[in-house]
Every structure is written in C-alpha cells, then in structure tokens.
C-alpha cells in the first residue's frame, strides 16, 4: 500500500483509516445533484473514490466538500483492522442527525466494509440506504435511482474482469502535482491475517495501454508524479487481446517511465515473494523512477511467516534486501510489521526486531494483530496473544523503528536531495515542503522564483526523526 501520510508518522494506525474530505468545492446550482464522498483506508480506496466521482459525474452529479449541501453522502470504507471499521460506524452515527433533517438525503456505504458485511449493513445501520462493493461502482446511477424510488439498494458482486480501465478519474485527492493510477485490482495471495482477498476479490491487471494513456493525460495536465497502485504490483501481468505478448510489472514500469522524463514514477505495494531483479534493474535504469521500495515484511520469523501464508522465509526476504542494495545502492526501503500474530513467541518477536536491525528501514507502518472474521487465520488459528502483550511488542517495534528512521535521516545530512515541491509547509507559510526521491518529507525555506510542482535540489542541514530540513541550492 502507499503511504498517504508523512513518513515521519512512524506508528500510523490512521493510514488505513484516515478520512479524506473532498477539497473540491462547488456551488449548488439549478437541478444539479451534489455528491459528498469521504474515503478511509488505503490509497486504492482513495483512488476508487475518484472513479466513483467520475461515474456519477456522467449521471449529473458534481462533488462538494460540504456534506450539509449534499444529495448523496458516500463513505468509502476499510475493513483491514477492527478499529478501521469502528471509525466508520462512529462516522455514520454523526450523519444520523443530517438524515433526520433531510429525509431525501441518500447515505451509502462503499468499499471493503460494504463488501464484507453486505446486506448486514442495511439491517444493522438503519440509516444506510445503499451498499456497494468495490467492483459494482458502474451500477451506482441505477442504485441511486432505486433508492430515490423508495427502496434500499445493494450490489456487492465481485468481478473477475472489472478494472474501470476506461473510467477517467475525477482527481479529488490531488494537489495537481501528484496522482494515483490503479494498475490492478484484487489480490490472490491469501495472507492468512488479511481480509483484502475477500473484500476486493480476485487479482486482475488493467490494460497497460490504458495505464500509459492515463499517465500521458496527467503529464499533459501538468502533473509531475504518479503512483502506480496495486495490492501486489509485482504480479502485474497483462496481455493484449489476440496476442501472446505478456507485459509484466518491469515492462509496465518502463512504459510509464518513458511518458515523460519530468514525471516521477512511484509504485506500491511490492511483495517480497514476487519482486524480481528485472524490476529492480528497471528502477535502477530510469532516473525518474523513484528509488524507494515499500516491501512489507510482517514478521522476521520464518515459522510465523509460514502461518501468515506469506510464502517466503526470513532468508528469502533478506536475499531480496541484498538484491535491492546491490542493484539500487541508494534505494530507501520501508515496510509493514504486525505484532502479536497467532502463536508468536517472545523469541519470534525478537527475530522481528533483529530483522529490523539488519535492514534499518527508512520508515514503517506498524500494527498489532487484529483478527478479521472469515480470514484463514480466524478460521484455523488461535488469536492467543493477549492484547497487552501485542501492545508491548508493538511499542518495542515502534521505539526501534524511531531509532532507525532517525539513523537513516541523519545519513542524508550534508547531502543534496532532489525534491518535488508539493506545497507550503503546514507549519509555516515561509517554508515549502515536498518529497525526496527516497520518499522523505523535506522542509526548506521558500525561495523566490520557485513554486509547487518544481524540482529543486535541497542541501540537507538537519533532521527530525524522519523529516529532512535544508535549503534550496539550485
Ligand atoms: N497488499 C499490501 C498491503 C495490505 S494491507 C501488502 O501485501 O503488503 C496493509 C498492511 O496492513 C499489511 O501489510 C499488514 O501489515 C497490515 N494488516 C493487514 N491485515 C491486518 C490485520 N488483520 N491485523 C493487523 N494488521 C494487518
Ligand atoms: Fe492482504 Fe497479503 Fe494480499 Fe497484501 S498480499 S492484500 S497482505 S492478502
Ligand atoms: Fe482497507 Fe480495503 Fe484497502 S480493507 S486497506 S480499503 S483494500
């Protein structure tokens, strides 16, 4: 998954549950209907909300950032951990009051929670009118019409083909500089802890030419950075119709890198079992493919990894790290870690810490295990680590990661980083912020003649735990 928040947020439960409220404002005029959509969870969900907005714009909807003026309120939901679902339920309660005032208001639940709970949502959450799974968004205009005629509506069919390849997203989450492009949907991996294969269905890759076209459109609109999204981008695999040619992720990366030397390419998420030397060589070869790989490890112990059904061992993972260091020596590496998975012993936990010591990740997203109903782990394994134990291990992981993030950040002091200016810093209007090639957040004083969307070279003077601070040298 892609990090939507700053990498400086080392323990970020919110990454998978942060609401993003639309920035696009629009005035209510005539009979135009208004859509308010709030997204939770991973970048995939945020990207899907842009597809939803596009499908509904064809049906006469424009988006609004004020839910009070909306005709339709959608929450695009996440099921990854229990607390992600709790947040959504709490948010729905807040919408109850508005629904009381406006009986015609349509409230819908989209995304992974809709897919997981299906019609249960209509039974449990009385104020919800429509429930739509991630592969059924083309049906939204019909479903809304059904609700307008007085019924409840639901479509949670998963598809083996749907990639929304022809839908041109309405860029809701964007600053006009960087954008997401979904390159595939679903996941076939069946990691035992994970709900995604159940909420997003089978893995399918999107037409490579439609991806390149979307990248070209973004280039022409002045965008400077694209992030290719998939649950496991390394298993991207697409063939043109009536052709035996196969386009793998390395080929796709290369095609997209050629769209413009001035447009950066990022991608997420890589899977240790599938990331090939060919992919690494492609990253090394192209200046505009960012030298950062998010490679979730989950655990440093081979027995736990086996129980998680990650299909790699500690040794295999370390071999992939060696390959990254050999082929892309400057590459930064980040990860995801789960503490307290079923049967994890104190020694197993120590192996996770020692894995962290060996790799010294630039940053990490760290979670305690949350059993998800219906997953293989929930069916077959005992969630036997007491909450207190999970949390203590998590605290140790977070503390160690903070040391490593600081260590990695310090290594950049005295170096010049190529930064894409994103905006003024939230803390000070006299500073810019942007990301380095290696995905560090960088803060530096505004300099006349430079603006968001420009690349600058920033000399790093000092750091916080994970943020680099410096000044523009050219
Ligand atoms: N497809 C990506 C990310 C999936 S979800 C991948 O394979 O890496 C993002 C992260 O959430 C996972 O990497 C994992 O660390 C965490 N996660 C998933 N299910 C979880 C669960 N049941 N409890 C705690 N963390 C979980
Ligand atoms: Fe979940 Fe594993 Fe698929 Fe990632 S690769 S989405 S963790 S099943
Ligand atoms: Fe959450 Fe679904 Fe993404 S469960 S993490 S929104 S794929």
Describe this entry's structure for a reader.
Among the domains are: 18-155, Methylthiotransferase, N-terminal domain (Rossmann fold); 175-294, Transcription Regulator spoIIAA (2-Layer Sandwich); 416-473, Nucleic acid-binding proteins (OB fold (Dihydrolipoamide Acetyltransferase, E2P)). It is built from 14 helices and 22 strands. Mean pLDDT is 92; it is low at 1-28. Strands 1, 2, 3, 4, 5, 6 and 7 form a seven-stranded mixed β-sheet that branches. A five-stranded mixed β-barrel has the order 18-19-20-22-21. It has 474 residues and is of the alpha/beta class. The chain binds S-adenosyl-L-homocysteine, iron/sulfur cluster and FE3-S4 cluster. This is tRNA-2-methylthio-N(6)-dimethylallyladenosine synthase. It catalyses: N(6)-dimethylallyladenosine(37) in tRNA + (sulfur carrier)-SH + AH2 + 2 S-adenosyl-L-methionine = 2-methylsulfanyl-N(6)-dimethylallyladenosine(37) in tRNA + (sulfur carrier)-H + 5'-deoxyadenosine + L-methionine + A + S-adenosyl-L-homocysteine + 2 H(+). It is an enzyme of class 2 (transferase).
Full CATH superfamily name of the domain at 18-155: Methylthiotransferase, N-terminal domain
DSSP helical segment count: 14
Structural class by secondary-structure content? alpha/beta
Our Rg estimate from Cα atoms comes to 22 Å
Bound molecules: S-adenosyl-L-homocysteine, iron/sulfur cluster, FE3-S4 cluster
| Proportion of helical residues | 25-40%
Major sheet characteristics: 7 strands, mixed
Poorly predicted segments: 1-28
Q: What's the number of extended β-strand segments?
A: 22
CATH architecture of the domain at 18-155: 3-Layer(aba) Sandwich
Shape: globular
- Beta-strand percentage range: 15-25%
- What is the CATH topology classification name of the domain at 18-155? Rossmann fold
Domain TRAM: 410-474
Subunit structure: Monomer.
Domain Radical SAM core: 173-408
Function: Catalyzes the methylthiolation of N6-(dimethylallyl)adenosine (i(6)A), leading to the formation of 2-methylthio-N6-(dimethylallyl)adenosine (ms(2)i(6)A) at position 37 in tRNAs that read codons beginning with uridine.
